[in-house]
Amino acid sequence: PKITYLEDNGKSHTIEVSNGLSVMEGAVQNDIPGIDADCGGGMACATCHVYVKEEWFDKLPKKEDGEEDMLDMAFEPKQNSRLSCQILVSDELDGLTVSIPSKQG
Ligand code: FES
Question: Locate the 2Fe-2S ferredoxin-type domain: which residues (predicted)?
């Protein structure tokens, strides 16, 4: 599946990410700036925070409580904020687009 990462400066990266990897892992493996993932996917850092395009947001599995708590600490959380380490790539997510908050870029 292809995932598109949009940087705050308008740069866009569309990358083929393997099924089962997280959206965060796809970004880290391809050196996408702004997704540092300091905790390595443990839902403990919020440096993998992204905004999910509205049309995709409802298709993602719901947030767990821990994710919501972490997002409260992220830079400028919005309605469509998610931790990218909690989004697992699958065929259904082909074409998913996420935006990286400015403070992480
Ligand atoms: Fe740390 Fe996602 S990588 S919360």
Answer: 1-104
